């Protein structure tokens, strides 16, 4: 409940014309109502010059308390703006917020009005009466539910009418994150030695101006990204720079997408920029880095995927990447984080390996995050590199797991934390998700026993509109954009509300920057959430949604061949094999131009698998092209091994 009431307004308006008073109050009601509704609340009633609003009815969300406090904090701001805009008696307001159980009866005569009855309603009114002018006072349950998202000041408990004991209260000050994202709810526990090791490597990188390759291996949700974020915070506070790129699991690859992300981010290139704009931005960025070399620019264009980008051989491409990385870190120690490289294709792994072996006199740390299956495809990953080692993250121990569960469920009994700890098996993501499940009303006596079952249980509880948006996003992939979802037909206001709620539930997160100019980029908080959502969509719905996504990208991207692999994936899943084959061949050609021949072979094979056997001439032509790509790949592997041997015997590497 949110109560907002004007202070002393009746006496101060006695000398003001009645029509002016009514007009001012109408503006006040409209502005306050708009703020409450913007955060998902419902104005239950107006009582004189007071406003009473409810969050959590008729639709409950996992973050209703936070929404209520955020709306309450905006009410004094709205009132201050009205005082500047309109003449008349000055408006002074105070606000109270309380959370608890109440009886809610929808008024049959209105679609928007609810009748809320209960002690928590009376307490909300008492909190409002005790609040300082222009401030927001909240009750104990509200504070407990929002203390990670809102900054508070301690105050003395209030003496409330008809209350036997003083009522605990806190003054709300401001959101801790202005963008609406909650800080991570997972305390950093049990990784002190691993973080200390990484910190030691970073100091060696800086002091010795020498590149190091570190790989962190661990199961999904074990904390790889979190420990990388902790390292990034430490090194950025000491003057370093961190750049993060990630491999995506849901699409074919033409070779070097992750490194292409890095080049685009540094150059300010958006996904839908035309080639001329890409070239201009890239050249400007290289000039700022001191790399005014037309040949380097031409070879780096391979990574950003301009139509005419090509290289004579892979060695040229790798050399341009090395010079780019060295220029990045020349004046500022740099951490490059390559996330989810177990999804990387051979050429990207070769590139990282080459950078680690050949970067010279540069303070740069290449940090790779991967699941253990990386070693299935590269058993000798990092082997032979002098400055390379691997950290294997193990599950949290019993003590750390229990402490984490206890901190994430402070309002629940200790045995619930113990049950969460026992079920989670030391996986921090599992512990956090189980805690969220219980905090959002899940039955602690029947906790889901697998992370997928637990995520599915949370998704099943979502309102219909939010679940639909989440399913659309799952079809797009781990990373998605608001514009794409809007192109699938969801009403704009409904879409924004759904995305806001999904983010507040910590199912998705807004990326700090977007690869699509003018569009907001989101990502699933964990790939498992995306996978579970996708698995619940019927096959016919999947086909329809993949088709809609493919059509949107074809219309939105000026040069569709630049995202040919993505379009091939969506058309294949939509059941249109002819279009899928066309884009697979276009992607294979791009891979060949970039000397990413292993990916070209894979793309040609994928195309062959979709072409009917009776189209013999077409299959023969593609088979021949696949054979040429395979020969080039085998030849490049021999050259790369020669480079590695040379690097190991190079006196500069000693």
CATH-derived topology of the largest domain: Rossmann fold
Distance linking N and C termini? 68 Å
- Please, how many helices? 26
Strand content: 5-15%
Alpha carbon gyration radius: 29 Å
- The overall strand count is 17
Q: Can you give the mean pLDDT?
A: 83
Q: Main sheet? A: 7 strands, mixed
Shape: elongated
Q: CATH homologous superfamily of the largest domain - what is it?
A: P-loop containing nucleotide triphosphate hydrolases
> Low-confidence segments, ≥5 residues, pLDDT <50?
108-113, 177-183
Class of the largest domain in CATH? Answer: Alpha Beta
Kindly report the spatial arrangement of strands forming the biggest sheet: 2-3-1-4-7-9-8
Percent helix = 40-55%
Q: How many discrete domains?
A: 4
Describe this structure in words.
This protein is an alpha/beta fold and 654 residues long. The protein has four domains: 2-175, Nucleotide cyclase, GGDEF domain (Alpha-Beta Plaits, 2-Layer Sandwich), CATH 3.30.70; 197-392, 3-Layer(aba) Sandwich (Rossmann fold); 398-459, no CATH class; 538-654. The protein is built from 26 helices and 17 strands. The protein is elongated. Residues 108-113 and 177-183 have low confidence and may be disordered.
